[in-house]
Amino acid sequence: MLVKKLTVKGRTSLHVTADDEVAEQRYDAFGKTALWYVEAAGPDARLYLGFKDDITAADFYKACHENKVESLLHSVKPKAGESYLITPGMVHAAKDVTLIEIAEASELWFRLHDWGSEERELHLEEAFDLIDFQRYRVKRDTEGKGAIAITPQFTVNKIALTQPLKSTRDEDDTFLLYYCTRGVADIQADKVNYKMKEGDLILVPAETNEFFLLPETSDAELLEIRMDPRPENDIVSEPVDEE
Question: Which of 3, 50, 127, 203, CA to CA, is 20 to 30 A from 158?
Answer without folding.
Answer: 50
